[in-house]
Write a structure and sequence with these properties.
2 domains; endopeptidase fold (from Nostoc punctiforme); 50% helix; 200 residues; alpha+beta
Length: 200
């Protein structure tokens, strides 16, 4: 009887090996194939996403380069304006001043531009509406940058830095007169920076 039971158990084990094991192996093989297919799809999608991002970066860089190009005539005019502006470094601030005897912020910008044959309005508020509005990150030499207390424009300066560099301006400060200031490193000016305009 015991021998018979043993034989039956052995037969069952053999049947399991013959029929169940191949099915399990087949299922596992199908799962592997399916996983590989899905993995290929995931990798393909990832490559497409990476390519799209790369193309966007290239397009953005081309746009930035195109916007930052300056023709020779404009470059010469910008250089003249900045040289003229730097002549007055150290001139004291004077409320309502529009001459080298003393400047307020907008009197300084208007005077410097006029010396190079470029006419702009008298006050910082009206200058903030003149020319073409540009992104602050695109501000380059010769552009005007504006500052505000609350929402009202109250100060203006001339950009002396290039795109990609820390933003610097030359302006008539009420406390120090005509100076060059690094806006990025100045907590006072950085938090009041509002907009930029291109007038050339």
């Amino acid at each position: 009887m015991k021998l018979k039971n043993f034989v039956l158990l052995l037969a069952c084990a053999l049947m399991t090996l013959v029929f169940v094991a191949p099915v399990t192996a087949q299922n596992t093989s199908k799962q592997d194939i399916e996983w590989k297919k899905n993995d290929k799809k995931r990798k393909k999608k990832a490559r497409k996403r990476a390519k799209r991002k790369k193309n966007k970066r290239i397009a953005k860089a081309k746009t930035a380069r195109g916007k930052s190009k300056v023709n020779k005539a404009e470059a010469t005019l910008t250089s003249d304006i900045l040289q003229e502006a730097e002549r007055y470094i150290g001139v004291k601030h004077r409320m309502g001043g529009t001459t080298p005897k003393g400047f307020d912020c907008s009197g300084f910008t208007q005077y410097v531009f006029q010396k190079s044959g470029v006419s702009i309005p008298r006050t910082s508020r009206t200058q903030a509406q003149h020319g073409k509005k540009i992104n602050l990150k695109a501000a380059r030499k010769g552009d005007l940058v504006f500052f505000a207390h609350s929402s009202s424009i109250s100060h203006v300066g001339i950009v002396v830095s290039d795109v990609g560099e820390p933003l610097k301006m030359i302006h008539a400060s009420s406390s120090k007169g005509v100076i060059i200031t690094n806006v990025e490193s100045s907590k006072y000016w950085k938090k009041r920076l509002k907009s930029a305009r291109r007038v050339l």
